[in-house]
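Thread: "does anyone have the structure for this chain?"

Original post by V.I.:
We have the sequence but no experimental structure in hand. Need at least a predicted one for the grant figures.
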Amino acid sequence: MSKDKPAAPVAEWPDLLALVDIALEEADSLGASQAEAAVSMDVGLSVTARLGEVETIEYHRDRGMAVTVYFGTHKGSASTSDLGADALRETVAKACSIARFTAEDACAGLADPADLAGEVPDLQLSHPWDLSPERACEMAIACEAAAMGVDARITNSEGASVGTHRGFRAYGNSYGFRGAYPGTVHSVSCAVLGSENGSMERDYWYSTARDWRELEDVAQVGRRSGERTVRRLGARKLATARLPVLFSPEVARGLIGHFVGAIRGGSQYRRASFLLDAAGERIFPDWFAISERPHLPRALASAPFDHEGVRTCDREIVEGGVLLGYVLSAYSARKLGLRTTGNAGGTHNLIVHGRGRDFEQMLALMGRGLLVTELMGQGVNGVTGDYSRGAAGFWVENGRIVHPVHEVTIAGNLKDMYRQIVEVGSDLDLRGGIRTGSILISEMTVAGD
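Reply from O.Q.:
Generated one for you, tokens below.
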């Protein structure tokens, strides 16, 4: 990407903290006992090319403010995309009006002052990219061409996309907290279709990063999508059986995502979780661990503070297979009689620890079973833990991939699946907020013919 260069310093952001001040001052003048305001602005460029031609060029520019006010334990919220001073004041007035009609809630209110971030560390989250539409189009076309050139059996394309986005977020509340930071996310992706003997398969690949210089080369992204599609040609079904299942890293993160959903404060206080009241219990094998690392430089889920201004901190969520605590905002923490964990808005860089086996060693450890590389459908019940999803991937025999597999369903219960994790690979996928390698489960129901 030598033709590309960093963007000039962002000059178009208004003083977002000044807008926060306007909202908070208005809330105070209208008698609110507490108030908070968050302002965001985002700009971006997205280009998609298909079959050698540019299909879409989109320029994004979004902005908005959300305001929440409290009159004692009565809460009102309102939002606006107009950041003019008059519109901000009107939005605050609407929030105050709404608060008059809401029921009292003893847990409502701002995060406790002692939990608010004292400083905003620079996590190197902003790396603007001076990418012109013309250059983005060239890159998308080149990416798709690399995919189509992998094999003559690649006959169609869903397209290749190149995107660059940058934003700025500011938050403040009536306890005096003020914080703001910029961020960027850039991406390249491609999906193509192949056909052989009357059957058709599809696969994709993508790269995403805070710093555009850390993206995979567009030709490499295209080639990987093409190679992944070709290796799925000739896929077969399997006979229904109980088998070991190895989740590749890009789908393994979903298993951890279901776990996070079950330990969120909202799921706990609503009594709607298959891991209800599970803090202190062994959920995973005794070697298993999950860490949260919010301050990793340039990581996609890093943040200096959460959506309530609470400081983000390193923590161990699972250690020795034992769940050490929940994922809490200030409100859900109060509902549970606990303290916020700085997770209003979500988790920040969860790292699943394995014992050092690479992908080839994971295949050897499984020996015989199903390698899953794609999941379909939404058959996961967060209350019972029942899990049933369509899957595609590869049959593995003697630790080696033998042939592609499609049109099967894998099923189990998440509580059982977590206990039956045999190993987590060292082949970490860094393209999201959950960093995990491949995950091997000793046995699941694989339903086919």
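V.I.: this helps a lot. The two ends are 47 Å apart (CA to CA).
O.Q.: and The longest strand covers residues 154-173.
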